[in-house]
Write a structure and sequence with these properties.
The chain is an all-alpha fold. The protein is built from 9 helices and no strands.
């Protein structure tokens, strides 16, 4: 009887076993080697009209470097051989679309929408459209001017003659700078290791 009346030792809660994977857990991933320049340029031209999917940093920036180098060389040679200026213009037009598609895929790789590229393009076109509207009536006289002060005075008079177009040009210029900075920051961010709504990561396996 005495043993039955003795107080029982307290029962502590047993440690609970985890019911699933830790939400903070990230699987081990391996980064593939950086894309070489030749492969990057080939890939961007092969995906000329491909605005879907993802592109890693090496693919995008090697292609941009290729465009800058070729454009600079053609512009330099055009100073000695004027006919090359036509080749330079053709090349500049030919690489507009692959640059835009590569930038769109680069933004997708950082899980950002490609619509940022469209907004930047609209402000860019708006700026040059307003500038062409302002300088259009005086474009021939500006082409024949050699005095920088006279050119500046003509441009100021063009702006003052159409304040609405000048305001649009200034707003579009500010918008172009702002969205250029945004897209540039997105383009230099490292690839996301996980799959997103734009597809699997081209860098991490």
């Amino acid at each position: 009887m005495e043993q039955q009346n003795q107080p029982q030792p307290p029962v502590f809660n047993q440690p609970q076993q985890p019911q699933g994977p830790d939400p903070q857990y990230q699987p081990r991933v391996t980064a593939s080697p950086m894309m070489d320049p030749v492969t990057a340029v080939k890939t961007c031209f092969m995906k000329y009209f491909d605005f879907k999917g993802r592109a890693r940093r090496s693919e995008f920036w090697w292609f941009i470097l290729f465009v800058v180098i070729v454009s600079s060389v053609l512009t330099f040679l055009a100073g000695f051989v004027p006919a090359i200026s036509y080749l330079s213009a053709i090349f500049s037009l030919a690489v507009i679309i692959p640059q835009l598609s590569a930038l769109t895929r680069r933004l997708h790789d950082t899980n950002h929408s490609g619509w940022w590229v469209l907004i930047f393009g609209l402000f860019f076109l708006g700026y040059y459209g307003a500038l062409a509207y302002l300088l259009g009536p005086n474009i021939e006289s500006l082409a024949g001017m050699t005095d920088s002060w006279e050119m500046a005075e003509t441009m100021v008079n063009s702006v003052q003659s159409s304040p609405v177009a000048a305001t649009i040009m200034i707003c579009c210029a500010l918008g172009t700078v702002f969205f250029f900075i945004i897209t540039f920051i997105f383009a230099v961010i490292n690839s996301k290791w996980s799959e997103n709504k734009y597809g699997p990561s081209p860098k991490y396996k």
